[in-house]
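Slide 14.
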Amino acid sequence: MPENVVLVGKKPVMSYVLAVVTQFGAGAREVVLKARGKAVDIAEVARRRFLARVQVKNISIGTEQVQIKEGGTSNVSTIEITLGK
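Slide 15: predicted structure.
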């Protein structure tokens, strides 16, 4: 596996942030984050098993604010995977 790949798992978020910062500090021109999740699973199963002509058109990440029970808000990370023919 190339050294500029950070595999994201169950460690605290800052562990992975530190890995990314370290890679760029060591001179990497790009760093690839690899993670798993239901959105990725759904896109891959749909493409590979049911929709052979569908391709990933775009992947974007962001943050949304959601209301929590205590009356405040919380930031939640999001990923959008756009599939198309």
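Speaker note: The helical segments are 13-25, 38-50.
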